[in-house]
Design a protein that fits this description.
This protein is α/β, with parallel strands linked by helices and 181 residues long. The protein has one domain (12-164): Alpha-Beta Horseshoe (Leucine-rich repeat, LRR (right-handed beta-alpha superhelix)). It is 24% helix and 14% strand. It contains 4 helices and 6 strands, in the order E-H-E-E-H-E-H-E-H-E. The protein has helices at residues 31-44, 97-103, 123-130, 145-158, and strands at residues 22-24, 49-53, 76-80, 111-115, 137-140, 161-164. Helix 3 runs parallel beside helix 4 (145-158). The longest helix is centred in the first third of the chain and has 14 residues, at 31-44. The protein is globular, with a radius of gyration of 16 Å.
Length: 181
Amino acid sequence: MEILWGDDDLSTEVGCWDRLEIFRCRSPMRYEQLDEVVRPSFEKGNLRVLDIPLSTNHDAAFDLQQFAFESEKLHTLGLSKFIFEDPMNYASLFTAQPLLDTIAKFPNLHTVAAYPGAYARCGDVIRALLSHKGIRRIYQDCLSGVERDEIMKIAHKKGVEILHCRKFVPPTFPKDLTHDN
């Protein structure tokens, strides 16, 4: 099985979850449901691409610290609608550490689609990604103005390609990757 789309009721009765190579879902899932679907393919070492939304609701935010998967095969990770601060509290501190901790579980990760929720300092997510050595391509839609110019210079120096794709990861993601592992 290559790609699973949609927000239909997912069930392990299908019996092929261990053969998933690419999993993209457009609607937030409970962690238990995600675990049920992708764990078999992680355990078999088949999953190469994971693209999931987390949550736009801070109270129900997907806790990346729950994310127990690790893999040397995963090379592309897409995360959208994530929150690393309380958007209702302007004094809360931004931290990309949950994202960086998750990325560290995938040593061969080279492509990340990062679509954080719309909040102040969301460009810091891209800055944090640039600190990770293995990343060579970042899809995003949060950079603009002077911040974009500054981050693009840093990315260029590090040899990281940053692609601006509005609102969502393009339908060709990850099919347009030129450096597939």
